[in-house]
Amino acid sequence: MEITPHKKQVLNAFSWKFAERMGLQGVNFVILLVLARLLTPADYGVVALVMIFVAIANTLVQAGFNTALIQKKDPQSTDFFSVLMFSLMAAFFFYMIIYLVAPWLAKYYKMPALSKVMRVTALMLFPMAFQSIQIAYLTHYLKFKILTIGSCVAIILAGIAGITSALCGMGIWALVIQQITNHTCACICLLLLSRWFPIGKFSFIRLKKMFGFGSRILFSNLLVTLFMNLRSLFIGRLYSAADLGFFNRGKQFPQALMDGINGTIQSVLLPVYAKHQDNKDKVIGMLRQTIRISVFLIFPLMCGLAAIATPLVQVVLSGKWILCVSFIQIFAFSYMCQPSQIASTQTYTALGDSSTPLKLEFVRKGLEMSFLLLSLPFGVKMIALSSLVAGIGACLATFYPNHKLLKYSFIAQLQDIVPALLLSCTMAGIVWLIGDLLHSLLIKLIVQISVGMVVYLILARIFRMQAYNFLWELISNLVSSKRGKYE
Description:
This protein has two domains: 1-238, no CATH class; 240-487, no CATH class. The protein is 85% helix and 0% strand. The chain is mainly alpha-helical. The chain has helices at 5-38, 41-62, 65-71, 77-108, 114-121, 125-140, 144-167, 172-194, 204-238, 241-275, 280-316, 325-335, 339-350, 355-375, 380-405, 410-435, 441-462, 466-486.
């Protein structure tokens, strides 16, 4: 496999984006580990509820313009400046709405602390608005090294601020301080490292042109944000803050792994796909390769996480979080339904088709809403299970437009997904059985992780998985080229 200059650029971007994602997840994991031991599940429940409303407002603030900037072939400084001005005005508008409705929401959810926490936390909207433009610029030009360094510095500083606040007895406010510090420091770091600031004239005409594409992305993202958090909104209302804390903590483990791997692949490949949007066959070929690689990496992580959930929680979070084990396992399998959906959506977006992703979101969310409403009377665990059932249905629903519009047949899609699924389930079964033979929690965790990695790689090599062969050859060539450079 020849590594062309373009491939080197993509590999370099992927490497830095992967380092950013995994570095951020690693640092964030340690920070949350410390905070989880210092704070209560109820504290996390309140902040989780607040962050839902902030996330919804942030989606409306961005209005799909950040994706439109990335997708645009040659965005000008006027485009970035116009979007920035719009985002800041939108941030002010939605902050005022949150400020006014916060007391009512506190009464509705029967959480007195919610009002003040929400009003302070919503200040994040302003740095997040500016940060979204910085990320769009750096992502479009594949400058992931700057994103990596800036994001890592910000999250470390935020972690220090959060842990210090928790140790000083500030309780729930430690989580608020951590969140605000993170986004504020990220803006400052990216500004200093990139030495780029959007300067130009505000152009309503340019904004209007991008809104045609961005509006559909907005509705799609808004649906995703609403439905991702809909379960938490119902749990916060129908059950306790502690229940919500367990639910969200269980969701965060698989979500962190998903964001680390799949988030890296998708964020790098959207601008790469966009550069080839005139060559549909090439983009479809890249889609298949993306799905193979995504499931090859994500499926074993999720199956393995489900197998080691109990010792992991007891060792890392302590016994007070043991009730989140079942949620980790449910969401691990639920997130396995996402790689092919996300890759397909990115492909349509890169080809300039934003209507198909929107239609798919309506189908997916219709399934989610149906199963969610059916599960509400039966407890928090059934609410979590509804996401798994809906996820399977949504994954199958994606197969049809892929077959019809992209000529990516049903059989080909199954051929790209099923092998990794079978190998991952086999590996997880072996890991689960080994856990029953050991008693020390720490030793059990270490042995299970080690055996799982070895077993999966051996199986992938024996069955000659396409993604394994591709990655092995890619890494070998990359190492050889680096070695030759220094000889």
